[in-house]
Design a protein that fits this description.
- The chain is of the alpha/beta class.
- The chain folds into 4 domains: 2-133 and 281-370, P-loop containing nucleotide triphosphate hydrolases (Rossmann fold, 3-Layer(aba) Sandwich); 145-254, no CATH class; 374-450; 488-559 and 639-742, Rossmann fold, CATH 3.40.50.
- Helix content is 45%, strand content 16%.
- It has 25 helices and 19 strands.
- The strands form 4 sheets. It has a 6-stranded mixed β-sheet with strand order 6-7-8-5-9-10, sandwiched between helices. A 6-stranded mixed β-sheet has the order 15-16-17-13-18-19. A 4-stranded antiparallel β-sheet has the order 1-2-3-4.
- A hairpin with a 2-residue loop joins strand 9 (356-361) and strand 10 (364-369).
- The radius of gyration is 31 Å and the shape is flat.
- GO terms for molecular function: ATP binding; ATP hydrolysis activity.
- This is ABC transporter-like protein.
- Residues 31-387, 488-718 form the ABC transporter domain.
- Keywords: ATP-binding, Nucleotide-binding, Repeat.
């Protein structure tokens, strides 16, 4: 099966069962030998199939996709490996074996135009509604109930029945509504027929052919003249139109819609919408609020499989914690809870919500029951175990090779055939019986049982898992200031926007008596809900806004690097404006004569954009994580002493987040982090270690006792120290979410 879009074509194939499945569980998937390839949209599907492996981007090769009913999964993998493409293939039912009746609801990432990369294939979030004048509440309810579509059918039928000019008006309306339904149904049957093969494919194609005859008959009925329709047909179809109208009106009964509206309001409130925003037209919302609207729609719809691609993007911590609790309740409520598959960079969110991990790596899917810390620990234990096994076998091999050489030498010198046979037997042991000493189940390895295929005679090689943390990121050291003093000092700063001339009402105070001092090496975190003034504080620190009262003083030799929240989107816009622009060309253009090409390449390589990735791949083809590294390179070549990071984890996979936090942990400059990512704040600001690095898990980084580490809460314009750090803020929000749930 293939799906063609302006930027990409997705090619999908898999093994299909020949057997009929009675009463399938729609919350489950069991797909074997799954292959997914993304090719250029310019190629036709027929031409692309034969050359897919050579010309396309291979996402999966002979993988198994297995989802158990009601289980919550996290799909994890590095940026650019194709997580979003897999989710789209499932949601669009492009994969043979997904029943056509399965209800699948999906929240997709925002569009990234022009990318052929599997992770950024340009798939936009579905429009909330085709009705541009819909309010937020109306749009969410419409997506869950198809209310607008049903209402259109009601209007067509009621106008024909109540205000009919001729006796044939109800018949004409009924036939038009019926014909429109047939066209929608034939589209689904056509997709089902193209997805299936063998006996089931033949049956699906026969069903499609039979249904196409119905569509043809319906088209002929629409074109009938008044004289061709007899009186009995008029009576019969007029009665059918009346019955259908009553059925549709029952679906939109006020009592039924009232329950759905109550649930919609609850979801929107949990995601941060105020009551005043419920009535706003969707078209007036920013991209972030539209994403929240789409998330609310996905949560409200009845579904068998719920797919969420980065649902925490654009949510503040209150919204994230509410969503955690909602998804946990969803898993426990009812006899047939939906299966959940999500992609997220937020480690805490994954650990709280998900029961199993699906690991996408090397074009394959593997499964792990447990959370991310357990998975990381299992990988470390496996590497340690296999490393010791391999070392022991290498020593054993060396010893056997030495005895073989001695046996051959002695056998040839004395003509002893036994020595030569012994050497040959020992060589066979090295060739055929060295390798894995344990089977996949942990038992002792048996050649005739643990290797598939009678022709195989050797054990599998011992393969030590490669490091899963992604790229290694190294930050260039910040230069000295030459003379002491704070990098930046904010003293008794108050800020409010100036009053408009036409308005006599005073503008509210955004920041009130803020004090903040940052020295070299400090780690500062700022947390708070959306709209609390974090962006205004950043503008004051970066000198893009002046305080209404108070002073902001900067060290005269301070160089500051500011990572803006929309840095990735800005780079994507640059890429669309100049389709051939690469990371290397962009950075060389910006550094001018300050650095030569070798130094620019070295900087990009240290941040995970080496060689041809930097010089040959256009910005439009880089993944979100790669664009984050490029944005950092644009700051770091200036050798800043202070980095201000505003939501830097939004486009990263969690492996890269870990690599980045490690790099920030050892950097000698000062860092101010504004983020809703609890893991980022704990690692960078509070200095916590992973279990991998410390037995305690909460110890500070070695040699960092002299660093000043402070987490601030910005609330109602007031900046105050959180004595218990981000955990204290999290606990307070947990209580607020409980109140929201009870309201």
């Amino acid at each position: 099966m293939s799906l063609e879009e302006p930027s990409t074509t997705i090619l999908v194939s898999c093994k299909q069962t020949r057997f009929h499945i009675e009463n399938p569980v729609y919350q489950e998937l069991d797909i074997e030998s799954l292959n997914i390839t993304v090719t250029s949209g310019g190629k036709s599907a027929s031409k692309a199939k034969g050359k897919a492996r050579a010309e396309g981007l291979e996402i999966l090769s002979n993988a198994n996709l297995k989802l158990k009913a009601g289980v919550h999964y996290a799909l994890i993998g590095r940026n650019g490996t194709g997580k979003s493409t897999i989710l789209k293939a499932v949601a669009e039912k492009l994969i043979p074996g997904i029943p056509i009746q399965t209800r699948i609801s999906i929240l997709q990432q925002t569009a990234t135009d022009g990318s052929a990369d599997g992770e950024k294939a340009g798939f936009s979030v579905p429009a909330v509604s085709s009705q541009t004048l819909f309010s937020v509440l109306e749009a969410v309810i419409d997506r869950a109930t198809s209310r607008n579509e049903i209402q259109q059918e009601i209007d067509v039928l009621s106008n024909a029945i109540d205000k009919s000019d001729t006796p044939l008006s109800p018949l004409r309306a009924f036939r038009q509504v019926h014909h429109n339904r047939l066209k929608r149904e034939v589209f689904e049957l056509d997709k089902d027929a193209r997805l299936r093969s063998g006996t089931r494919g033949m049956a699906a194609r026969k069903a499609l052919t039979a249904f196409e005859k119905k569509v043809t008959e319906s088209t002929e009925k629409l074109s009938q003249t008044d004289e061709e329709i007899d009186e009995d047909t008029v009576k019969e179809e007029t009665h059918a139109a009346t019955d259908l109208l009553a059925e549709l009106q029952a679906q939109l009964e006020p009592a039924r819609l009232a329950n759905i509206e109550v649930k919609a309001r609850s979801i929107l409130t949990g995601l941060g919408f105020s009551k005043a925003q419920f009535g706003k037209p969707v078209t007036t919302l920013s991209g972030g609020w539209r994403m929240r609207t789409n998330l609310a729609s996905a949560l409200l719809q009845p579904t068998d499989i719920l797919i969420l691609d980065e649902p925490t993007n654009f949510l503040d911590l209150l919204g994230i914690i509410w969503l955690q609790k909602y998804l946990l309740r969803l898993r426990d409520d009812g006899p047939n809870p939906p299966t959940l598959v999500l992609v997220s960079h937020d480690r805490d969110f994954i650990n709280t919500v998900c029961q199993e991990l699906i690991i996408l790596r090397d074009h394959d899917l593997t499964y792990f029951r447990g959370d991310l810390p357990s998975y990381d620990a299992s990988i470390r234990d496996k590497k340690l175990y296999l490393g010791r096994m391999k070392d022991a076998q290498e020593k054993q091999k060396a010893h056997i090779q030495q005895t073989i050489a001695q046996n051959i030498k002695q056998g040839k010198a004395t003509g002893d055939d036994n020595k030569l046979r012994q050497a040959k037997s020992r060589q066979k042991k090295i060739d055929d019986r060295m390798g894995m000493e344990k089977s996949a189940t942990g038992g002792r390895f048996k050649l005739n049982r643990d290797l598939a295929g009678y022709h195989l005679t050797a054990r599998a090689e011992i393969e030590i898992p490669q490091d899963e943390k992604g790229v290694s990121i190294m930050l260039p050291a910040a230069p000295d200031l030459r003379f002491p003093g704070p990098l930046i000092s904010v003293e008794n700063v108050t800020f409010k926007y100036p009053t408009l001339k036409k308005s006599s009402a005073p503008t509210p105070v955004v920041l009130q008596d803020v004090n903040l001092t940052i020295h070299m090496g400090d780690r500062v975190g700022v947390v708070g809900l959306n709209g609390c003034g974090k962006s205004t504080l950043i503008k004051l620190l970066t000198d893009t806004t002046k305080p209404t009262k108070g002073t902001v003083t900067r060290h005269p030799r301070l160089r500051m690097g500011y990572y803006a929240q929309h840095a990735v989107e800005d780079l994507q816009a640059l890429g669309r404006a100049e389709p051939e622009l690469t990371a290397l060309v962009l950075l060389i253009r910006e550094v001018g004569t300050e650095l030569d090409e070798g130094e620019v390449r070295g900087l990009l390589g240290s941040l995970g954009l080496p060689g041809r990735t930097a010089s040959d791949v256009p910005l439009t083809k880089l993944s979100g994580g790669q664009l984050v590294r490029l944005a950092l390179a644009r700051l770091l070549w200036k050798s800043p002493q202070l980095l201000i990071l505003d939501e830097i984890t939004t486009h990263l996979d969690f492996h890269t987040v870990t690599a980045l936090t490690d790099a920030f942990g050892s950097w000698n400059g000062a860092i101010l982090v504004v983020s809703h990512d609890r893991y980022m704040i704990r690692r960078v600001v509070e200095g916590e270690k992973d279990d991998e690095d410390s037995d305690g898990g909460n110890e500070r980084e070695d040699g960092d006792e002299s660093r000043r580490r402070t987490v601030f809460l910005l609330k109602s314009g007031i900046l105050k120290v959180l004595e218990r750090g981000v955990s204290g803020f999290e606990d307070s929000l947990e209580k607020r979410v409980e109140k929201l749930s009870l309201a």
